[in-house]
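retry 2 of 3: previous attempt timed out while embedding S-adenosyl-L-homocysteine. Reduced batch size to 1 and resubmitted. Inputs unchanged:
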Amino acid sequence: MKGKVYLIGAGPGAPDLITVRGAEILKRADIVFYDALVHPDTLAFAPRAIKVAVGKRCSRVSTDQRFINRNLVEAAHKYPTVVRLKGGDPMLFGRAQEEIAALKKAGIEYEIVPGVTAALGASAEVGVSLTRRGLSRSVVFVTPRVGEGEEEADWAKSVLAADTAVLYMAAGQAAQISAILLGQGMPAATPAVVVEKATLPESRQFHTTLSGMRDAGQWSLQGPALIFLGEVFREAAVADTAIEELLRTLKVVSAN
Ligand code: SAH
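retry 2 succeeded.
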């Protein structure tokens, strides 16, 4: 038996943001290896499948990548339809390449089904176009996170080079990131928006500036979050800051 392995993007959070193609394949899947970021309701699209959690959330219990690769290959020898289900798009910060390489090496057929990446789910929620005409001609998807054995990447340069930046796997270190970018000469007033659990009902947004990101500790983030930076967010950020200031003034008045 040599089955086929599908690397499917589950979308950013809301279960109905998976593609029709992804959902159709899940319907006939025999076994699904899913990430920690995949919504539990998304698994309902795969009623017949054995479900295997292979969470790769940093700083939590995670499953070794080689173990996942081996599992995919072994499953393809047992089942016709094997699914590797990943949050967002499988090819963006999703370690898909390692899995593809392992499948190729084992001579196993595979197919990639794209998904809505977190940046696009979050931009829809904030209601700001990442490429707003006249303000932004470029968007960078970047992460400051460096994997084990990888070289320290010059991620800050890519942020400075693009009109709009989306930082993945970064919100937990927002204060340090702010300091690094300020140190590289990025303007302190650059609008910043942090979006947590985008596309889910409990989603939260924090509108601030690059220098304001040093207060990130107060947000006590609980779920996956990303950072947007760029002029396209100015209006949204300014409106929010104005409300915050008004609330602060009211508090001062009432305290007196
Ligand atoms: N392949 C995924 C990204 C995986 S890396 C994709 O295309 O979206 C994990 C990072 O994605 C998190 O640290 C966070 O920065 C971001 N992320 C994933 N889901 C998110 C969500 N619902 N809201 C905000 N950020 C999210």
